[in-house]
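Case study 2.
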Amino acid sequence: MATRLEAPEVELGDATSEVRLEGVTRRFGAVVALDGVSLAVAAGEVVAVVGASGSGKSTLLELVCGLQTPDAGSVRAGRAVLMPQRDLLLPWLDARDNAALPLRLAGVDKDEARTRAHALLTRLGLDGFERARTWQLSGGMRQRVAVARTLLAGAPILCLDEPFGALDAITRADAQAWLAETLQQEPRTTLLVTHDVEEAALLADRVVVLSPRPGHVVATIAGPPLPRPRVPTDPAVVAVRAEAMEALRSSPR
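Prediction:
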């Protein structure tokens, strides 16, 4: 899809919790990563973005977070925080201080930051592991600490890039369940990038399917009814998964 390049428009970091991309194109030299992507995410909505490798999913998140600038089109979003694929926990800090890091960077007193981190880690099932170092935590535990750190950053918009991609199937299922419960308890506008179509159907209010590079939106699918967490055998989840898979298979390559 060819897109006429115009001066990009970017409005980031205000108090809104909405996201709006209109006709966004992003190039890297001769490579077009995203081509004319339009996407709106309402306040408190969870939207999953799926697509083949190289379809520009991670680039889309970085545009929303202000880490990249579009070559054309407009990006409007409130303050967003990115949780990358790797947890990036600091090995010289324990779980509590890793989670509390954004609070400390914002100038919050150490004791208060630790208290708030401890409360959230307890809600995420890590009571008793607050003082554990990163190498003493399982992969699933590390991801929970990373999610706690992301939530404590206080941004109204969460951008999650394959947050559970490195986990085994059982741990991943557990992680999906507690993320769903966390978003029920602490609603945030959320963009979730994932290669796992079932994960998208389990967690999202809508599933957006991108074409292979250059990425553009080929389908937008309403997710199963609330509440979350959902179960993979739910007929509504199965139906959303099937529709998303069909969109992926039929998108031009």
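The two ends are 12 Å apart (CA to CA).
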